[in-house]
UniProtKB/TrEMBL annotation:
<feature type="transmembrane region" description="Helical">
    <location>
        <begin position="191"/>
        <end position="208"/>
    </location>
</feature>
<feature type="transmembrane region" description="Helical">
    <location>
        <begin position="288"/>
        <end position="307"/>
    </location>
</feature>
<keyword id="KW-0811">Translocation</keyword>
<dbReference type="GO" id="GO:0006616">
    <property type="term" value="P:SRP-dependent cotranslational protein targeting to membrane, translocation"/>
</dbReference>
<keyword id="KW-0812">Transmembrane</keyword>
<dbReference type="InterPro" id="IPR016447">
    <property type="entry name" value="Translocation_assoc_membrane"/>
</dbReference>
<protein>
    <submittedName>
        <fullName>Translocation associated membrane protein 2</fullName>
    </submittedName>
</protein>
<feature type="transmembrane region" description="Helical">
    <location>
        <begin position="214"/>
        <end position="234"/>
    </location>
</feature>
<keyword id="KW-1133">Transmembrane helix</keyword>
<feature type="transmembrane region" description="Helical">
    <location>
        <begin position="246"/>
        <end position="268"/>
    </location>
</feature>
<feature type="domain" description="TLC">
    <location>
        <begin position="112"/>
        <end position="320"/>
    </location>
</feature>
<feature type="transmembrane region" description="Helical">
    <location>
        <begin position="159"/>
        <end position="179"/>
    </location>
</feature>
<feature type="region of interest" description="Disordered">
    <location>
        <begin position="328"/>
        <end position="358"/>
    </location>
</feature>
<keyword id="KW-0653">Protein transport</keyword>
<dbReference type="Pfam" id="PF03798">
    <property type="entry name" value="TRAM_LAG1_CLN8"/>
</dbReference>
<feature type="transmembrane region" description="Helical">
    <location>
        <begin position="78"/>
        <end position="97"/>
    </location>
</feature>
<feature type="compositionally biased region" description="Basic and acidic residues">
    <location>
        <begin position="339"/>
        <end position="358"/>
    </location>
</feature>
């Protein structure tokens, strides 16, 4: 199974060999884990990589319900879906983005940004639809339930699987910077948002704030989906600017909604809960220090995003004003017609000569 066309062969385990064949190597590892399910001696080990662990069966009015909590075995599951994310990344790049790039004939810098937006557009679309499905099927995501009965240690299967795949995807984005040969000036920018996603998703998962985290991820992914669609349209035709205006509205709404929900759930809801204190066995992290740290982290992140957004909008406004000024100068600098001289040697325009002759 080859994901990339190979115009040249490289020595085994060389740098170029690993970059060209990393998806095939990872695919072989996934097949090796799946083969382990076929044998009784290795099935228990292989299932650790594929299926979420730490399930508990409880009784509810609906009957028996299987819930999950987190533990160190989740690292194996994240590793497996880390491999899956690398394979899917190569599939999208080879069979979708590369074909579009050949038709657009973009420059190298635009090509890198186009590939980035293309990959993130697919991921944000899938994640936003998936998170929305969880929100409408799980009743614990309504506003009062975001902080009631904290800690939310036990999760439904789809909620835990969603968090594990989110962590796996953003972890896979780190080696992809090397595999995709991202330029040095782009690495720092991409590392910033990758690390921020990993930090916030890990905090929501480990601190048992999965309900509010799920709502915030849905809002964030919908907003980012609009941005990357707008950027893809801009690369295809630079006259497509209206999508950026629509994204600007959703961006500001997302920032305000994020701050409001965090202050309601963490600052207001958890501060009035009865179970105050730190209890690692029960998964309770409801202390003043942890609440203030979480709120400070979210506020700093949202402020930083708003600052970048304002700079982006100011740059667009300056570019627009510059284009308008250039167009006005081009319109005013029209060539003047040379004046014709009459029989007496005086310079007159065509209009004056016509009036005199009449």
């Amino acid at each position: 199974m080859a994901f990339r066309r190979r115009n040249k062969s490289y020595p085994f385990f060389s740098q170029e060999f690993l970059i060209q064949n990393h998806a095939d190597i990872v695919f072989s590892l996934v097949i090796f884990i799946l083969i382990g399910l076929m044998f009784e001696a290795t099935a228990k080990t292989a299932i650790l990589f594929i299926q979420p662990q730490y399930n508990v069966t409880t009784l509810s009015p609906e009957g028996e319900v299987t819930l999950y909590h987190y533990g160190w075995k989740d690292c194996a599951t994240i590793l497996f879906y880390f491999f899956i994310a690398i394979i899917l990344h190569a599939v999208v790049q080879e069979y979708l983005l590369d074909k579009v790039n050949r038709r657009l004939h973009l420059s190298k810098s635009k090509n890198t940004k186009f590939n980035e937006s293309g990959q993130l557009c697919v991921f944000h679309l899938v994640s936003s639809v998936w998170s929305f499905y969880i929100l409408i099927t799980v009743s614990e995501t309504f506003l009062p339930s975001l902080w009631e009965n904290y800690p939310h240690v036990h999760l439904r299967f789809q909620v835990k699987f969603f968090y594990l795949t989110q962590l796996a995807y953003w972890l896979h984005a780190l080696p992809e910077l090397y595999f995709q040969k991202v330029r040095k000036e782009e690495i720092s920018r991409q590392l910033q948002y990758i690390c921020l996603y990993l930090l916030h998703i890990s905090a929501a998962y480990l601190l048992n704030l999965s309900r509010v985290g799920l709502v915030l991820l849905f809002l964030q992914y919908v907003s980012e989906l609009g941005f990357h669609i707008a950027r893809l349209l801009y690369f295809t035709d630079e006259n497509h600017q209206k999508m950026f205006d629509m994204w600007a509205v959703s961006f500001v709404f997302t920032r305000m909604s994020t701050l409001t929900l965090m202050f309601l759930s963490v600052g207001f809801g958890l501060s009035r809960a009865e179970n105050q204190g730190l209890d690692l066995d029960m998964g309770n992290f409801n202390t003043v220090l942890i609440r203030m740290t979480v709120l400070l982290l979210v506020c700093l992140t949202q402020s930083w995003l708003l600052w970048k957004f304002i700079r982006f909008q100011l740059r667009r406004w300056r570019e627009f004003r510059h284009e308008q000024a250039v167009r006005k100068k081009a319109a005013t600098k029209q060539p003047l017609r040379p004046l014709k001289r009459d029989s007496h040697g005086s310079a007159r325009s065509d209009k004056e000569r016509t009036e005199i002759s009449a």
